[in-house]
Specification:
Helices cover about 80% and strands about 0% of the residues. By secondary structure, it is mainly alpha-helical. It has a domain of about 30 residues. The longest helix has about 40 residues.
């Protein structure tokens, strides 16, 4: 595990905010890609009835 206790609280807080921001962007992009793939598939399934 990465040791960050030696860093100042300001640096720790900045790293935490950065990690959360990167995580949010990754989820946004991932869900966008999933929606592009899943929407035509769901439309095909529902139109088949």
């Amino acid at each position: 595990m990465i040791e960050s206790a030696a860093l100042s609280p300001l640096v720790q807080a900045t790293i935490l905010v950065g990690v959360i921001l990167v995580q949010a962007v990754a989820l946004y992009v991932g869900y966008g890609a999933l929606e592009r793939v899943a929407t035509p598939l769901i439309d095909t399934i529902t139109d088949a009835r």
